[in-house]
Amino acid sequence: MGFPFWIVAALTIAGGMAAILLRNLVHCALALTIAFAGLALLFLQLDAQFAGFVQILVYVGAVAILVVFAILLTRGAETPKTEGVFSKTWAAGLVIAAAVFAVLAWAVLQSLPGLPHETGTATASVQQIGAALMGRYVLPLEIVASLLTAALIGAVIVALHEKKEEAK
Amino acid sequence: MIEKADQIFILLRNWIVGFLPAGWQTAAGVVLGVIGIIAVFPALFAISVLLERKGLGRMQNRLGPNRVGPFGILQPIADAIKSLTKEDVVPLNADRIVHFLAPVYLVVVAFMGFAVLPIGRNMVLVDIDASLLFYFAMGASTEVSIFMAGWSSRNKYSLLGAMRAVAQMISYEVPLLMSSVVIVMATGSLSLVKIVETQNQYTWGLPHWNIFTPWGLAGFVMYAIAGTAETNRSPFDLPEGESELVAGYFTEYSGFKFALFFLGEYLGMLSISGLGTTLFLGGWSAPLAALNWVPSWIWFFSKVMLSIVVFIWVRGTLPRLRQDQLMNFAWKFVIPMTLLNLFVAALWRFMGEGWLRWVVCSSLLILVYVVAGRTGMRRKNFGPRSYRYAE
Amino acid sequence: MLGEGILKGLSETAKNFAGSFVSKERLTTVEYPEERAPLPEATRVFPFLVYDGSDWQAGMRCVACQICEKECPPKCIYIEKSKDKKPDYVGKMQIYPARFEIDVSVCMSCQICVEVCPFEAIKMDSEFELSTDDRFGGLLHDRKRLAKSNEYYHSIHPTEAAEVDARLAEEKAKVEAKAKAAAEAAAAKATASAKAAEVAPAANAASKPAGGAEESKA
Q1: Which of B95, B144, B391 shows the shortest C-beta gap to A64?
Q2: Contacts of C14 in chain B (CB under 8 A)
Q3: Facing B63 at nearest CB: one of C12, C16, C29
């Protein structure tokens, strides 16, 4: 929990806050990218190299772009926020956020065998992750794969729906 | 003596670092390595720019620039002075912060990719276990900077160019990664240092470079295609084509920021060549066992410059691909071939040594290539034109 | 097979690259200020006035007939006739242009002035490096600048100049033949009249001037 951790944590939280508070929607998406990068640095600090680099590769490299595409293609970027950035139902939002935080904190604390100070050596090398994915966790892997395939095919079908109406 | 020449940069670094107190030594060593990279690769960039202009000129039956020094070799200096002294025009409506940060981010991310390339024996800046993954993570981040550049200019043509560039880069990430996964499968490690060391063995004087295997050759060709598309280089340079969208996503950039984009693009080219050399061409290992007396970093740089020459050669030869043609090519031809390559590499590994695996793997690859080439890339017979109206 | 065309293209480009160091046809660049590309013979840029011999004023073929001034489409020629006359290439006295100016910034190189000139006096030049920084008169060429010798005309358009020279020589020969015939006829008439005057006994004074005229004619 040294000095680098506090810097990276501050960066992540700043990115997250900026993603909520900024006016321009594309700026919010870019701030979210900073938050993703901060998360990746946190993973790297915990010596989880695979998770950290894949976080950058997938989130910063692809998901951020996806978010931006979604913003641009759905005309969310054109209407500037004339009202304040805080919505009218902020009380309900606060309650839901607190509930989600409580559930996540319970799940994390339950799964740790000890306190986070006992870091020890990195026990999840890429080889072990690969072996686990193909061995113990192969069923979730296949389910995720079929989910992704379904999503891809669904996206293609949604994009092609106009063609079905043409007489062949 | 030979080893001294080979390790000369390491020895130099150790000597300089020896002057500092013990606590500062590792940090100083890393800083010196970073300074080395920042000095060498922009110099290579200047050489590549010069090679490109002269080489393209000769290929197009004309001389390249030849006024600035003898045979024009000081032209990059003239270009640098020009780009530093041009007025920096930012459009009135542009998003100033994002407009400023886009080239900076591109150059930063491009430089980070060099940190894991093994430039010579023991000469890698950072030796990570998952260095290939780190490299691809940095490569994927360049797309964000292109999008930032196109968006912040508030110019719909820049935005269009940026969208096309990002779509192209995302589509070609998949073949890039998959052709590298084959190497990882064969070597058993994600670490680039280990990949080069595995290729450094020699049988009968010939090296074990990955390109000399059937799956390695196919993988190299697909890696080259995907790498050309990743760095927006001709024939995949529709997003930045000068005759297409003015200059695409960097239309609104002038002066030094444009030079930074240019630098970022060429650094990306050098970086992809460096990774291709490491994965397929044996990194810093010599082509014949007898040539081991030449320092390893000379081999690395020669191979990288050879790849740059091939890039320039291809640029001078091929016309630009249209957006739908390049997307078609990626999704319908290159990705299935990379999947097949994975299968062939697996066959190779599990068939054991001998001539049989060469014959089986090569014939499988060639057969599917010819068949897929004939069917998948066949000219489509268009029926009566159909219209799709926007909703 | 897919990729064959690419390989053929790559070999062609490589041939271009390698060939550009050795053969001229693979490197067609002419490095302009130091070398110039050879111009074809029929190059035409702006008009010039031809003069025969070495004195540009005495040998100038232009007789200020003003046909080119009238026919020029953008009206870039300005001619002022002289008050006196000078002999032309056959010896006949003709007027000459006191001022002959062409504004080359207006001239459109249509060559109509050349086509209509009956005296082969104006021809097309091939010099194109005429830029100047004098924006008020630099591109208004006067007759001294426009006058160039017939040898120069031979050097830029050899076949045309040879043809023109042949035609002019023919005309000159015809005129000279006519003059000679006229002179011979006049000489014959004078001899006849002298002979007639001789038989008259009292015209002693007449024979002396006739003899003197005969001697002067011989």
Answers
A1: B144
A2: 313
A3: C29
Determine the residue of chain B that is closest to A67 in CA distance: B144
How far, in Å, CA of B362 to CA of B365, rounded?
5
On chain C, the residues whose CB falls within 8 A of the CB of B318 are: 6, 9
Extended strands (E) in chain B: 202-203, 206-207
Kindly tell me whether chain A and chain C come into contact, counting contact as 3+ Cβ pairs under 8 Å: no
| Residue ranges per structural domain of chain A | 1-81, 123-168
A→B interface, C-beta within 8 Å: 24, 26-27, 30, 33, 49-50, 53-54, 56-57, 60-62, 64-65, 68-69, 72, 125-126, 162-163, 166
Out of 1.20.1250.20, 1.20.120.1200, 3.40.50.300, 3.40.50.1820, select the CATH number for domain A1-81: 1.20.120.1200
The region of weakest confidence among A74-83, B58-67, B273-282 is A74-83
Measured between alpha carbons, how far is A100 from B381 in angstroms, rounded to an integer?
55
Residues in chain B: 391
Q: What's the rounded Cα separation, in Å, for the pair B109 and B145?
A: 9
How many Cβ pairs within 8 Å bridge chains A and B? 68
Inter-chain contact B370–C12, Cβ cutoff 8 Å? no
Q: What are the backbone dihedrals phi and psi of residue C148, each rounded to the nearest 5 degrees, phi first? A: -135, 150
Which overall architecture, per CATH, does domain C47-156 show?
2-Layer Sandwich (3.30)
The full set of domain ranges for chain C reads: 47-156, 170-217
CA distances from C59 to A43, C62, C91, C163 (A): 97, 9, 11, 19
Taking the C-alpha atoms of residue B302 and residue B216, their distance in angstroms, rounded to an integer, is 20
The 3-class SS string of C45-81 reads CCEEEEECCCCHHHHECCCCCCHHHHHCCCCCEEEEE
Tens-digit pLDDT profile for residues A67-123: 888 888 776 656 665 666 667 788 898 999 999 999 999 998 888 776 555 555 556
Q: Is C202 on the interface with B (CB under 8 A)?
A: no
Write down the ipTM of this complex.
0.81
Residue with the two structure tokens 């296949």: A142
CA–CA gap between residue B81 and residue B79 (Å, rounded): 5
Tokens representing residue B346 in the block:
């697996």
Q: C31-44: string of b/e by CB count within 10 Å (b at 16+)? A: eeeeeeeeeeeeeb
**Residue appearing with tokens 């053969």:** C23
Chains A and B share 3 or more Cβ pairs within 8 Å: yes
Contact (CB, 8 A) for A53 and B129: no
B127-171 confidence digits (pLDDT tens): 888 899 999 999 998 888 988 888 888 888 888 888 888 889 989
